[in-house]
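FIELD: query
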Amino acid sequence: MKEKNFYNEIGNWDFSKINYETQTTSGWNIYKEIEKYTTSKSICLDLGTGGGENIIKNYPSVEKIIGTDYSKTMIKTAKENLKNSKRKNIEFKVMNNLKIEYPQESFDLISARHTVIDAKEIYRVLKNGGYVIIQGIDKEDCIELKKIFKRGQAYKDKKSISKIDLENLEKAGLEIIKKEKIIEIEFYKTEKDLMKLLLKTPILNDFSEEKQKDVKLLIEKELFEKYTKKFREEKGIKLVRKLYGIVAKKT
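FIELD: result
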């Protein structure tokens, strides 16, 4: 419920107003992977779609995409974004990822980006020969930042999220086709840009600013400044993202 309230308050998944650049050591791109395993006749389900920004802009040409999120505010934003786009094959719906509200063997492909999954539910609603493609945030993501704050997303988990997903997919009966470690190095132009990211995402638990106009007045100002001073480089404030990609098939 706390996480649901967080995303309802955020209301969108648009990072375009944050000034940063990304360098990647991987050739992984979830939408290019989706394109490899779909055709113009594919029926697709996107779990945890947020405000729909990514699937509207990046999803390949398929017959139909159903984007779902358990946040009503996110889906409201997604529907508004869809009105302003030229996409005609997308539908958005409020739904819990862990209880997929569709019959068995409904989809040719299921995608899940930075969200929780239920492997058994995915297996149930995938057609035989269908694929699931996952991009997730792993335990070591932003680890230097989490060490300074001594908390954060999956920081105290004993087992990595990628390993849990792989094990659950295999237990559900899916064949792992591809797994990949993804390292992305992000450079934020200013402290304000990095702060916008942390306020908009659950990288750090309960990261907030005081209810004042001055954006520098952080409750955890000293920790934030400690990180920005230590990891400031010529390109900006460095943040190392560690993600994972999985492609699995229902055989």
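FIELD: remark
The chain has one domain: 2-250.
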